[in-house]
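Reopening this one. Same input as before:
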Amino acid sequence: MTTQTQTKHTPGPWKVDSFDWEGRPDAVDNDVEYFSTIYGLTEKGAEFIIADMCGVPSGIYAKSTGQADARLIAAAPEMLEALIAVMDVIPFATNPIDRKIHQRAYAVIRKAKGELS
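Same output, byte for byte:
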């Protein structure tokens, strides 16, 4: 199974900027509202917003968790590209454990491409 097909998402790299309610970047206080914005780049290099995330002070969804989520989202295009490259180099598995890992990896790739819900 080859995984080299076009994807429909905005190509990476993406970047994250985080700031608090008063516009301070990377405020250290977990007890303030904060925002993280994920940006992509146009073909000409101009930034545009892919997603905005907002966090409120609470023990459930602290600022550090929200910023970690934003970084994970921003890394998604590069992680997908890396996983596709690995699966193209190692396209099959010979033992049951490796086959399960391959099946899981192919399912994640299909999910990211919108081929699997």
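So the earlier flakiness isn't reproducible anymore. For the record, The beta strands are 15-20, 34-41, 47-55.
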